[in-house]
């Protein structure tokens, strides 16, 4: 064993001093200048004014604070217990060696020679820093030799304090966080100077494998590592009860680390990661050159957002839908302005799942399309609500063959009034009404409602009336605002998410409030759809919660009693993969979707029975505070 040890030492010593040569001399000047520049940047950071962008909800409640620029801190801002924890875990002899820990290095060399490759580091903090700053981190003997020679030079030219200062500001803590300040903001939503001993222990425990040990990814492993760090701190003289510290820590942070709505950035405050992400995207889209330090006021109302989130999470959990891959999305709009007041984008919002089902996903809308057909017929005076339509078998000849549409219950009721046909959402009467109005003309009508060609490719497809057209949850809600406002279509504004944005100097660069006021005084809100037609449809939909209406059972299950002001429409796609419910009045429009992302099996219920109770629970709470 001794022969192997000394042979390894001889070979590695030769490697270290033979490697540099001319190549080392060329790199040395560049790397040392890089080190000097970084050290000066960190030391001067105390005089730099930190740029903070702030995002508020419509009522002035702070949603998030986004810190920009390098988050460098000096020693006076770093707790001693954090320094001790990191040194004890990574290099307990840091203050005593000259850049290399020979015992640790020899132990690693022997292990690596036996394996024939680099499997163990044995690196000091200085070596780790050299690797971090000067190389790409590849595991080779040449790279190891380079790190060692660089470490010896750094230790010769710089103080321990300077080396440690750069290390603490540049070391990787996982989730795109570099340095102790960014890590503190990300994992604890606080500045590093305010860390507790337990919090410092958790950070120090991350360094061996940050993303693997992350409490967001593996809380049990993070807890084990934290305990090891706390034990090492006790060994060097700290006095505390490890069990008590850990219990207090995990009581405070367990729910945060298990949250489905975690921030993607090292922010000090982030009440709604979903809205922070949406706001940042919208701002950068409208103002790609905007500098950090802006202030934005959003359309969201955090009180309403809380209701949507709480009711959705409770409903999905209590019904057991989370275990069978069911997803949900919902949006609440201001009926008059079309602003988004609250949104749920799915059962999770994490760094590995940022898909927004409320805005990005498009699904068949089912029977939600029927109110617009009857509004079109009422506007043209082709039908009235007392007219009779036949709910009987029908066969339509198409180019592709005969189409024989059916009702949801696969039954026929014979003659039925238009009002009852819509209230009960019968398919066959709707098909007959479409044939009276004309498929192509109806597609043109939908273009007027949505102010865009949402059905241009379906002008020869009568199946459109069964909801084969695909839309997002947001689009559905926007369409129903037209019915809620009796035919008025809000004039286009710069953003339905951002109310105001001011730059770092406090100058307004966006003010959609002013746009709305201007639109009102200029009377740019016009009745695109007949007021009487929309009012007639809404009056029918107010009776959907009555007996034999498609939302009767859902309203009862949610304990909702309609006072005659709330309209509702449920929808289910023909393959039973999508369940919808829309509820509205003169103030709000709520759209709720439940379905599978990928599974093709039928849902465990129709729109009224699946999405309906959730929608009414949300609606009931909203109306209590508005």
Give the key terms:
single chain; alpha+beta; Penicillin binding protein transpeptidase fold; 2 domains; six-stranded mixed sheet; elongated
Structural description of this entry:
This protein has 626 residues and is an alpha+beta fold. Helices cover 46% and strands 15% of the residues. Strands 5-2-1-6-16-17 form a six-stranded mixed sheet. It has a five-stranded antiparallel sheet with strand order 8-7-21-20-19, sandwiched between helices. Strands 3-4 form a two-stranded antiparallel ribbon. A hairpin with a 2-residue loop joins strand 3 and strand 4. The longest helix has 24 residues. The termini are far apart.
In short:
This protein has 626 residues and is of the alpha+beta class.
CATH domain class of the largest domain: Alpha Beta
| Basic shape | elongated
Average of pLDDT = 85
Looking at this structure, what is the CATH superfamily of the largest domain? Answer: DD-peptidase/beta-lactamase superfamily
Helix content: 40-55%
- The appropriate CATH architecture of the largest domain is 3-Layer(aba) Sandwich
Global structural class: alpha+beta
